[in-house]
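Q: Please design a sequence for this.
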């Protein structure tokens, strides 16, 4: 018997709600709450079983706390936007409820991705005897668990880690982002950063490029070095890692549109005055771009996200690649959403299941790689994101 409140009725919220609803023995009572309750109701109407919906502004700690105190759920699954992480954590503290999210806190006024704000809640969560599980999506999330699994079963020491995120799908639109456009563009236009020999090395946005030959017929694609938040927690929890990088594929078409939008100032996050009213260019751009949830029925092709790890096993060098391949159209058939939301929503459901079943349970603030990866990896196979492990002779990346 458990009750969860899912906050956020966007692309990811839709998938988490579908996946939780498929497991009534774990998720007995589900409430989907968001700023706009109509969106919650539209998702609820797609489900084979009844759930409840609610309206909440999660930026408003008092409102969020009142909802938690009235409902007393076992867990809050936060799949609203990164800006809401801290207010929802504050509400969880006030009401004594466990917390899970899929992206680290970001202040709205600055595209800055780091765990410091949420890690600062460690003592407060410990003292309140509640837990926060941070970053239970795919990347961060599954990539952290893959790393922990490699360390547990394949390598005594990980020396080099490359996380590679490939979307080989096509939605047929001239330009659209696969998840919230504002969050996506803030991330992509930020400076790149990777970990090398105990320090961060910064690179200009999308200035480091390589090519990777993806498995199972996906084939070679250009990949670009970016900063991604799991690098911070993974290098903290596996201090033996000498180099950790994150790569993502982008099509030339996406990059061309992004360059023009940047050049004309449409990706800015500083307010500008338009007809006497302050607007933020990136938020206006979001309003005119396709809603990512509208891409569900249009997107074809597959994603391939995985970790290439090089290290030592029994004194010998070894390279291991763990990845998942996910098909956009199959995801749509199952939960009416494309693979980007699917690959985030399924791990959010599994993270919640780990907490509710007591498999991952400890007070304080935790990242995914700090728990035993095995039960999570088993559930990935069972609930829609099966993975493969292969041993490689070379990483396949240019050094
Ligand atoms: P969407 O923009 O589709 O959905 C966000 C939802 O949150 C919307 O329903 C929105 O409401 C709601 N929301 C926004 N602000 C508030 C608020 N103040 N109070 C209540 N609800 C609010 O985003 P996605 O579903 O694509 O992404 C959800 C989260 O998942 C993001 O944090 C994103 O960064 C993360 N993510 C993580 C990934 C991973 O692999 N770890 C990958 C992809 C995404 P409204 O509809 O009214 O705007």
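A: Design:
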């Amino acid at each position: 018997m458990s009750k969860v409140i899912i906050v956020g009725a966007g692309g990811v919220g839709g998938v988490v709600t579908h996946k939780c609803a498929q497991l009534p023995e774990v998720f007995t009572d589900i409430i989907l709450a968001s700023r706009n309750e109509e969106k919650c109701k539209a998702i609820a109407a797609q489900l084979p079983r009844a759930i409840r919906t609610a309206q909440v502004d999660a930026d408003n700690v008092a409102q969020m706390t009142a909802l938690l105190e009235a409902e007393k759920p076992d867990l809050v699954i936060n799949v609203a936007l990164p800006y809401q992480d801290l207010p929802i954590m504050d509400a969880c503290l006030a009401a004594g409820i466990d917390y899970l999210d899929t992206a680290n806190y970001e202040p709205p006024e600055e595209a800055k991705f780091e765990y410091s704000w949420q890690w600062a809640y460690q003592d407060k969560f410990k003292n309140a005897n509640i837990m926060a599980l941070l970053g239970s999506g795919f990347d961060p999330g599954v990539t952290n668990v893959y790393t922990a699994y490699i360390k547990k079963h394949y390598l005594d020491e990980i020396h080099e880690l490359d996380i590679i995120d490939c979307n080989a799908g096509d939605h047929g639109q001239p330009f659209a982002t696969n998840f919230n456009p504002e969050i996506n563009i803030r991330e992509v236009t930020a400076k790149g950063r990777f970990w090398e020999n105990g320090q961060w090395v910064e690179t200009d946005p999308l200035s480091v490029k390589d090519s990777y030959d993806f498995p199972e017929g996906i084939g070679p694609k250009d990949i670009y070095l970016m900063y991604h938040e799991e690098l911070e927690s993974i290098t903290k929890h596996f201090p033996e890692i000498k180099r950790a990088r994150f790569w993502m594929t982008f099509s030339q078409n996406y990059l061309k549109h992004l360059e023009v939008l940047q050049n004309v100032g449409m990706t800015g996050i500083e307010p500008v005055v338009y007809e006497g009213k302050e607007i933020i260019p990136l938020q206006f751009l979001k309003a005119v771009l396709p809603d990512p949830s509208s891409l569900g029925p249009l997107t074809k092709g597959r994603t391939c996200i995985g970790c290439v790890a090089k290290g030592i096993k029994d004194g010998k060098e070894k390279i291991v690649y763990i990845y998942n391949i996910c098909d956009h159209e199959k995801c749509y058939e199952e939960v009416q959403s494309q693979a980007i939301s699917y690959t985030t929503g399924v791990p959010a459901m599994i993270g919640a299941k780990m907490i509710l079943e007591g498999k991952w349970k400890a007070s304080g603030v935790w990242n995914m790689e700090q728990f035993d990866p095995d039960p999570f990896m088993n559930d990935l196979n069972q609930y829609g994101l099966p993975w493969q492990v292969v041993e490689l002779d070379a990483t396949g990346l240019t050094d």
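Q: Thanks. Anything notable?
A: Residues 191 and 204 are 5 Å apart (CA to CA). The mean pLDDT is 96.
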